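Possible regression after last week's pipeline update?

I re-ran a chain I had predicted before the update to compare outputs. Posting the input and the new output here so someone can diff against the archived version. Not blocking, just want to make sure nothing changed silently.
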Amino acid sequence: MLFYVAATGVLVRGVASEQGSQRGWYWLALGGILLHGTYHVLVAMQTMGGADMHFFAALSLVSLGMAAMTAAVGAQGRMAALGVVALPLAALLLAAYHFNGHVAAPHLEWQLQLHAWLALLAYAALAIAALLALMLWVQDRALRERSFPRWLRALPPLTELEDLLFRTIAVGFALLTATLLSGVLFVQDLFAQHLVHKTVLSVLSWLAFGALLIGRWRYGWRGRRAVSWTLAAMLLLVLAFFGSKFVLELVLQRT
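New output (post-update):
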């Protein structure tokens, strides 16, 4: 958590001093990512089971994926500013996981483990896409109002940001497609496993992301329309996974 916070501080200082992002943030973030992943591995070893994927654990794992993707993109100098949001979020969700206890994971066949990991990767990629969409909206609004705060200079040009948004959505859409296909192949009883609502919302989100990609390819969708579709599709996905997990695990006390 300290590594994440320190990396965020370096990024914020770079924006405030108008010097852009400083390289030191990357190594601090990488240290945080490695320790974050190690923590989950150690918990899995101590609970004598597989990876804990209950509510807070799943949030922490998704934030780990977001931090790793941010570092991968930011290492190329394109979107280091994304770390100002993704890195402190990872620290916060890791703390939430640590202080809310750990649950021994039930034994799962490798097929269901593959399905779960694909889902977490898809959520991480599409959550990054949602953050990029918000940045695109802020930048587009600033251009329309001809108001350019100093921190906006840390973002890449509008066209580059938009291109990165759709590349990220394409990756997340592919992972979400693989998640749904593996669910169809490996999940045995949707009703007994309380997965009907989760499946319906996930399919709706998949359709929305697919429609957005087709709209971009066929009709050149961009700007506010792209932002609206991205955030709406991500909201459906959040409700599908974390909304259902919250109700089942924290409200109804079921696994």
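Follow-up from reviewer: compared with the archived run. The mean pLDDT is 84. Marking as no regression found.
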